[in-house]
Amino acid sequence: MDLLMESFSVKDARLGSKTRLSGGSLEIADDLLRSHLLEDPVFEDVGIEIVKPGEDARIVHVIDVLEPRIKTTGEIAYAGTASPVFQLGQGTTRALKNIAVITTCEFPLRRHGGLDVVRDGLLDMTGPAAGFTPFSKTINLVCSLKLKPDLDEDQYENAVRLAGVKAARFIGEAARDLEPEQSRLYSLAQKKKDLPKIALLYQVHAVGLNLNSFFYGMPFNDKLPILLHPNEILDGAIVDGNWSHPAVKTPTWYHTNNRLIDELYKQHGENIDFVGVVFYRGRFEEMQGKARCSNQVVKSAQMLGTEGAIVTWEGAGNAFIETMLIVKGCEQAGIKTTLLTFEMGGTEGVDEPLFYSEIEANAIVSSGSYERPIVLPPVSRVVGGDKFQVSPEVGGVYLDAKGEIALPDGLHIFCAANEYGLTSHSCADY
Amino acid sequence: MTTLAKNVGANRIVAGTKIPHPCGDPTVSPKRDHEIGTKIIENAFELLKKQIEVPEIIEAV
After folding, report:
1. Is B9 within 8 Å of chain A by CB?
2. Under a CB-based contact definition with an 8 Å cutoff, are residues B7 and B25 in contact?
3. N or C: which end of chain B has fewer CB within 10 A?
4. Nearest Cα to A343, choosing from A366, A311, A373?
5. C-beta atoms surrounding A188 within 10 Å
6. Are A278 and A297 in contact (CB under 8 A)?
7. % of residues, chain A, pLDDT over 90
8. Candidates A116, A207, A287, A356, partner chain B, best to mutate (most B CBs within 10 A)
9. Quick check: B1 contacting A, CB < 8 Å?
10. Backbone angles phi and psi of A401, in degrees to 5
11. Domains recognised in chain A with CATH numbers
12. pLDDT tens, A140-153?
């Protein structure tokens, strides 16, 4: 299963009458995109705006970020979401680089508290929070989705997720008839004997409504671990559906641009034998479920002949128990592990960094703490809405989205504590 | 979640139903939900009455 990825670099973008890319300059037919997204009767209105790197701007109510993509070998990009299912991770895919589709949506606050209410997320293009994600450096096409009132929560969840994918495909079409600038073949075919076998143990958040990950369009919340080809992840088999925890979510863009997979490929055949990905959800609701899941992940790694495993996770709470049980199980089975995670540590950084651990976890890469207070300065432009909502547990406190925003931690900052390592944050011992 | 309780040094541990609903089960009838919750609380009282030398756990009903 080889995947040819052809990429096209976007240097600037503007709204116009046709969708086309020429010499790095992207024109987007925003009226057509708008009508296309408005085909979904859940939306009352859709706004399309461009936000550029370096702008003193803040995007609020952030839902997902996706890379514009198409397939030129008959499949459909992000197959299974608002489309038939095709096997992804093979054939040819075209990607527009340096540009991201960002969906925003203000969900009505139907319930107070609860684990799966939609929490507001913000993304600053400049200032102290700009380094949390790569999107302060990408040209962002922001689709602000306005929901019709009085529909069901699952209709809202479904509509916003599909809208992101549709927009990503729509923009991706600009690359269909062009000559690729760069291409890269992702293949595990080259193998040298006696290279250490390395697997990626890849946890996503998949619990239920507003807190789910989708596998070829299928919600993954009641599924057990499965074996994936890394190309499937790079090619959009996983679409994000986590609208509840902005700090620890993994936007679809992070899956399709997973830097760990990218690096494992670069090393494959030279220093390592990349044997595959074990894909699973954590956060099972009782120890039986956690033990069952962790054992299956460890067993799958063993059946791949894994000698070393990279362990990543997604979530903020008890999902980490599965992660640690897997580290423990692998180490006890003779598989060396490296764990990548954010840490907590409290406001001063002196509290316990992890709320759960097993003694076998002896190699951990920290992506920094999200428990530090942060003050975001006022901005000149805000996209996606006027108000920023915090504390949904108490009914919502509404702040002026353009003004200074003082937060006690990174919970509301988009991807502030992402566990896949796509951040400029880490930790230092002193 | 008994492992977590053990790790932080709790001495008397009673396993509940599930993380979102530790003292009951909203997926069954209200009568059975109540019975499950009552049993868990009774287990907790039993442990509180006991003199223990090492940490004790009562597993899930």
Report:
1. no
2. no
3. C
4. A366
5. 18
6. yes
7. 84
8. A287
9. yes
10. -65, -25
11. 1-186+373-408 (no CATH), 188-371+414-430 (3.40.50)
12. 999 999 999 999 99
| Beta pairing partners, A312 | A202
CA distance A69 to A29: 16
Mention every residue, 6+ apart, whose C-beta is less than 8 A from residue A38.
A45, A46
The structure tokens listed for A171 are 């923009």
SS (H, E, C) A148-172: CCCCCHHHHHHHHHHHHHHHHHHHH
Strands (DSSP E) found in A205-270: 211-215, 218-219, 226-228, 238-242
Chain length of chain B: 61
Mutate to test the interface with A, among B3, B8, B27, B57 (most CBs of A within 10 A): B3
Q: Residue A417 and residue A121: Cα distance in Å, rounded?
A: 12
- pTM of the entire predicted model: 0.94
Strand partners of residue A57: A381
Flag the least confident range among A215-219, A403-407, B4-8: B4-8
Mean of the pLDDT values across residues A312-331? 95
Q: At what angle do helices A319-332 and A287-303 cross, to 10 degrees?
A: 40
Confidence of residue A427 (pLDDT cuts 50, 70, 90): confident
Distance CA A7, CA A27 (A): 17
Sorting pLDDT into bands at 50, 70 and 90, what band is A418?
confident
Which structural domain, as residue segments, surrounds residue B11? 2-58
Give dist(CA A416, CA A429) in Å, integer.
20
Count CB neighbours of A260 within 10 A.
18
